[in-house]
Write a structure and sequence with these properties.
mainly alpha; Rna Polymerase Sigma Factor, Chain: A; Arc Repressor Mutant, subunit A; 2 domains; 7 helices; 0% strand
Length: 187
């Protein structure tokens, strides 16, 4: 049985490339604490730090036969971990952007729904108040606002003096403004 604890990093890497899992475990055990400390200082989260280290070592094991370690093993491991930390922050940033976009979409939908409810309430309120106007005044108002007829056209259509049409419109508007200003519960 080989004791890998005395082997130099270069030999452990060569053995790992030959799929010697004991050499890989020795590399992991030798550098885990250093990498964990390094990662925790940057992330301030022990669980995420562990996950990143495990992911990094899983990647190294998967790529063991093709991985290029140009210098010291520890420098290579730090580089792999730093890249994982950068990726983690990038993913956090993207995730935060999605959360913000989703929240904005929810807010818009809520505002849109709220606006629609208020709009419908106000329209119903206006229609009730128009229906409550005296008959002649209501007819004049509806012809003016709903049929887009001018005073002269309403006068001819109803066979009434144009000044009477004008007076009825003014009174209708005054009544409606007064009723709607009193009832601000739609806001």
């Amino acid at each position: 049985m080989n004791t890998y604890s005395n082997f130099p990093d270069v030999q452990l890497v060569d053995l790992m490339r030959e799929s010697d899992d004991a050499a890989f475990i020795e590399i992991f055990n030798r550098y885990y604490i250093l990498l964990f400390s390094f990662t925790c200082r940057r992330l301030n989260d022990k669980e995420v730090s562990k996950d990143l280290i495990y992911d990094a070592f899983a990647y190294i094991w998967e790529k063991r036969d093709t991985i290029n370690i140009p210098g010291e093993l520890i420098a290579f491991l730090y580089t792999v971990i730093k890249n994982r930390i950068v990726d983690h922050y990038k993913h956090q940033k993207v995730r935060q952007k999605y959360v913000e976009d989703f929240q904005r979409c929810l807010d818009q939908r809520q505002n849109s729904t709220d606006h629609l409810v208020r709009h419908n309430y106000l329209n119903a309120r206006i229609e009730r108040e128009i229906a409550a106007l005296p008959e002649k005044m209501r007819v004049v108002f509806e012809l003016s606002r709903k049929k887009a007829m001018n005073r002269q056209e309403i006068s001819e259509h109803l066979d009434m003096p144009e000044n009477t049409v004008k007076t009825n419109l003014q009174r209708a508007l005054r009544i409606l403004r007064g009723k709607l200003e009193l009832d601000k519960s739609y806001e």
